[in-house]
Specification:
By secondary structure, the protein is mainly beta. The chain has an eight-stranded antiparallel β-sheet, with no helix packed on it. The chain has a four-stranded antiparallel β-sheet with strand order 4-5-6-7. The protein has a three-stranded antiparallel β-sheet with strand order 11-10-17, with no helix packed on it. It contains four helices and 21 strands. It has a domain of about 170 residues. Strand 4 and strand 5 form a beta hairpin. The longest helix has 12 residues.
């Protein structure tokens, strides 16, 4: 896996999804807005479309949108890359009409659903999500748990996690001995939670001289929310968290809520960000929650001294 290093000094520390950074000159390239991409698709195919989903890479260098035609006969996937920001790649697929669903009713009545059971290692019911434990937004204790062990941004090191046997992606952790320049961020390191599902951490060298990434402190956590079941990773709140639950616990965010709504479909998204300024660098620590259609889709926790 190619490692990227981002300097935590100079202009601004940018962990936002909506900014792409080219590796050669650090020029900021904004990810196109959903409406802009939708317009391009409609011009390309001369049809009306509705947005089905959108996803932006962690560093903002790549993005993908899926659109469905209004008559539901065509699906178009649009990809974008910051290396060629003025170009879209289109991939279309014809959709077959869905067969009507036949419902069969019986005369047998049941007063209560049968209890669910667990046999062997296969669980027939979803586990009860973790409950909110204390303050969701706590800049004095920006922690998460792997296999029950607590790790804290700004305190724990990558080596602490390696020594504890955290299930890192091997190709990532093989780079742990690579030296990281002073005042730079390095990573990311994927933690495998289940097949096809991982979270990612980044490290920061907050000293005045280079040192191996394994000795650097963890300063950022990226969590894509998935329905895939796992029992390795935990936060102090469930990933089923709603916006109302977040606000009830943490209050209104101190940054403007970014809301996007597609008028031609039921797609909408909201980004809530809580942050504090750094005493040393431009930017600061933050908690960011990205909701899509009311459900938490991405979570970012970033520590900056």
């Amino acid at each position: 896996m190619e490692k990227t290093m981002r300097k935590v000094l100079a202009v601004i520390i940018s962990f936002a999804m909506m900014i792409g950074m080219t590796a050669c000159n650090l020029k900021k390239v904004e990810v196109p807005a959903d409406k802009e991409v939708k317009k391009a698709v409609e011009e390309e195919y001369d049809m009306k479309f509705k947005l089905d989903s959108s996803e932006v890479s962690k560093d903002g260098s790549e993005a993908e949108w899926v659109f469905i035609s209004k008559d539901e006969t065509l699906e178009v996937t649009v990809t974008w890359n910051a290396k060629n920001p003025d170009k879209y790649e289109f991939d279309d697929e014809e959709l077959e009409p869905e067969e009507s669903e036949v419902t069969v009713t019986t005369t047998e009545e049941t007063s209560e659903p049968a209890p669910t059971t667990t046999e062997g290692t296969t669980e027939t019911t979803a586990k009860k999500p973790a409950e909110i434990n204390g303050s969701i937004v706590n800049f004095d204790d920006m922690s998460f748990y792997i296999s029950g062990k607590k790790y804290t941004l700004g305190k724990s090191t990558l080596q602490d996690m390696i020594d504890a046997g955290v299930p890192f992606e091997k190709s990532d952790i093989d780079e742990a001995s690579t030296e990281l320049e002073a005042k730079y961020q390095g990573g990311g390191f994927r933690i495998n939670l289940a097949d096809y599902y991982s979270v990612m951490i980044y490290v920061l060298n907050d000293t005045d001289s280079p040192k191996p990434m394994s000795e650097c402190i963890i300063n950022e956590l990226y969590v894509p929310v998935s329905d895939i079941e796992q029992n390795i990773f935990e936060l102090n709140f469930p990933l089923t968290l709603t916006m109302d639950e977040l606000k009830a616990n943490a209050g209104e965010p101190n940054n403007d809520i970014y809301h996007y709504e597609d008028t031609d479909s039921d797609y909408y998204s909201d980004t809530l960000k809580y942050s504090i300024e750094s005493e040393i660098y431009l930017g600061g620590s933050s908690y960011q929650f990205d909701f899509v259609k009311g459900e938490l889709r991405y979570f970012y926790m970033t520590w900056v001294p």
